Amino acid sequence: MNSAEASKERAETYEFNEKLKEAQQAFAQNTAKKAVTGAEEATANKKLMDACKGFETMFLDMMYRQMRQTVPKDTLFGHDNTDDILESMRDTAMVEKMSEAGGIGLAKTLYEQLQRDAHAIKVDK
């Protein structure tokens, strides 16, 4: 992994952690209140779904990068750093579009699980 990929991965990890913290704070605020309005719950649900989609995008991007490393480089027409950058950008764009279109279902599954956990917390209180 080159330094650009490592930097990108650190930035994505930080961004995901921030989104997840926002979603957790939104749910913590909602569970602390006795009455939650529909608008507050919808906002919290949107933040949670955004965090889940961000996680799925990051997961798929990391998976594609690892898969790409297993493919031998074709040096028939030459190879330089710009090819790697272009490949990385193309993979990132493809993964983002894939995630927007529903991805592999990881975001939806994660969202549903976290929703069940949040509901269980509300019921227990």
Q: Can you characterise this structure?
A:
Helices cover 81% and strands 0% of the residues. The protein is an all-alpha fold and 125 residues long. It has one domain (3-124).
The structural class is: mainly alpha
Helicity level:
over 70%
Mean pLDDT: 80
Per DSSP, the total helix count is 4
How would you sum up the major sheet? none
Beta-strand residue percentage: under 5%
Low-confidence stretches are none
Shape call? elongated
Q: How many domains make up the 3D coordinates?
A: 1
The H-and-E topology, N to C, reads as: HHHH
Gyration radius, in Å? 19 Å
Distance between the termini: 47 Å
DSSP E strands, number:
0
Index terms:
81% helix, mainly alpha, single chain, 4 helices, elongated, 125 residues
Short description:
Helix content is 81%, strand content 0%.
Give the helices and strands, then pairings.
Elements: H1 3-32, H2 38-69, H3 81-100, H4 106-124
Helix pairs in contact: 1-2, 2-3, 2-4
